[in-house]
Amino acid sequence: MFNSYTENTLEYDEKLCINCRMCSTVCPHGVFSGGADKARLVNKKSCMECGACQLNCPTGAITVESGVGCAYAMMWSALTGKKEVTCGCDDDAGSCCAPTTTQLFKSER
Questions:
Q1: Tens digits of per-residue pLDDT, 43-54?
Q2: What is the CATH number of the domain that holds 58?
Q3: CA 39: distance to chain centroid?
Protein backbone atom coordinates (compact mmCIF):
# COMPACT_ATOMS: atom_id res chain seq x y z
CA MET A 1 0.00 0.00 0.00
CA PHE A 2 1.30 3.44 -0.92
CA ASN A 3 0.95 6.75 0.87
CA SER A 4 0.94 9.28 -1.91
CA TYR A 5 1.08 12.98 -2.57
CA THR A 6 0.88 14.74 -5.90
CA GLU A 7 0.51 18.53 -5.54
CA ASN A 8 3.28 20.99 -4.71
CA THR A 9 1.97 23.93 -2.65
CA LEU A 10 5.10 26.15 -2.72
CA GLU A 11 4.43 29.74 -3.84
CA TYR A 12 7.05 32.48 -4.17
CA ASP A 13 6.29 36.19 -4.64
CA GLU A 14 9.49 37.69 -6.04
CA LYS A 15 8.16 41.24 -5.51
CA LEU A 16 8.30 40.75 -1.72
CA CYS A 17 11.85 39.32 -1.71
CA ILE A 18 14.58 41.44 -0.08
CA ASN A 19 17.37 38.98 -1.04
CA CYS A 20 18.24 38.05 2.55
CA ARG A 21 19.02 34.53 1.22
CA MET A 22 17.48 32.80 4.22
CA CYS A 23 15.44 30.56 1.91
CA SER A 24 18.53 29.26 0.14
CA THR A 25 20.33 28.86 3.47
CA VAL A 26 17.65 26.78 5.20
CA CYS A 27 16.29 24.73 2.28
CA PRO A 28 17.61 21.15 2.50
CA HIS A 29 16.93 20.53 -1.22
CA GLY A 30 18.32 23.60 -2.99
CA VAL A 31 14.95 24.85 -4.17
CA PHE A 32 16.12 28.48 -3.94
CA SER A 33 19.32 30.20 -5.03
CA GLY A 34 20.50 33.72 -4.25
CA GLY A 35 20.27 36.05 -7.22
CA ALA A 36 21.79 39.47 -7.87
CA ASP A 37 18.87 41.30 -6.25
CA LYS A 38 16.22 38.61 -5.57
CA ALA A 39 16.22 34.95 -4.60
CA ARG A 40 15.50 32.64 -7.51
CA LEU A 41 13.20 29.63 -7.40
CA VAL A 42 15.49 27.18 -9.21
CA ASN A 43 14.02 23.75 -8.49
CA LYS A 44 10.40 23.76 -7.30
CA LYS A 45 10.13 20.06 -8.11
CA SER A 46 12.58 19.26 -5.29
CA CYS A 47 10.45 20.97 -2.64
CA MET A 48 9.34 18.61 0.14
CA GLU A 49 7.14 21.27 1.74
CA CYS A 50 8.91 21.11 5.08
CA GLY A 51 8.13 24.81 5.63
CA ALA A 52 11.66 25.94 6.60
CA CYS A 53 11.79 28.60 3.89
CA GLN A 54 8.44 30.09 4.87
CA LEU A 55 9.31 30.14 8.57
CA ASN A 56 12.56 31.98 7.87
CA CYS A 57 11.35 34.45 5.23
CA PRO A 58 11.10 37.86 6.95
CA THR A 59 8.79 39.38 4.31
CA GLY A 60 6.31 36.56 3.67
CA ALA A 61 7.49 36.15 0.08
CA ILE A 62 7.25 32.36 0.43
CA THR A 63 4.20 30.33 1.34
CA VAL A 64 4.01 26.59 1.57
CA GLU A 65 1.37 24.39 3.13
CA SER A 66 3.65 22.31 5.32
CA GLY A 67 2.24 19.08 6.69
CA VAL A 68 0.54 18.10 3.45
CA GLY A 69 3.41 17.59 1.05
CA CYS A 70 5.99 15.05 0.07
CA ALA A 71 7.79 15.24 3.43
CA TYR A 72 4.51 14.50 5.20
CA ALA A 73 3.78 11.50 2.94
CA MET A 74 7.24 10.10 3.63
CA MET A 75 7.06 10.61 7.40
CA TRP A 76 3.53 9.19 7.61
CA SER A 77 4.65 6.11 5.69
CA ALA A 78 7.50 5.56 8.11
CA LEU A 79 5.30 6.07 11.17
CA THR A 80 2.56 3.75 9.95
CA GLY A 81 4.88 1.00 8.78
CA LYS A 82 4.18 1.40 5.07
CA LYS A 83 7.02 0.10 2.95
CA GLU A 84 6.38 2.26 -0.10
CA VAL A 85 5.85 5.96 -0.56
CA THR A 86 5.30 8.01 -3.67
CA CYS A 87 5.07 11.74 -4.04
CA GLY A 88 3.57 11.55 -7.48
CA CYS A 89 6.90 11.94 -9.17
CA ASP A 90 9.30 9.63 -10.93
CA ASP A 91 12.81 8.59 -9.95
CA ASP A 92 14.23 11.77 -11.45
CA ALA A 93 17.25 12.83 -9.39
CA GLY A 94 15.80 16.33 -9.13
CA SER A 95 12.54 15.24 -7.56
CA CYS A 96 11.74 15.14 -3.86
CA CYS A 97 11.36 11.38 -3.96
CA ALA A 98 14.43 10.30 -5.87
CA PRO A 99 15.68 6.76 -5.08
CA THR A 100 18.16 7.98 -2.47
CA THR A 101 15.30 9.54 -0.50
CA THR A 102 12.61 6.89 -0.78
CA GLN A 103 14.83 3.89 -0.20
CA LEU A 104 15.09 4.98 3.44
CA PHE A 105 11.43 4.13 3.84
CA LYS A 106 11.34 0.97 1.74
CA SER A 107 13.46 -1.20 4.00
CA GLU A 108 11.92 -3.88 6.19
CA ARG A 109 11.29 -2.92 9.81
A1: 888 888 888 899
A2: 3.30.70.20
A3: 16
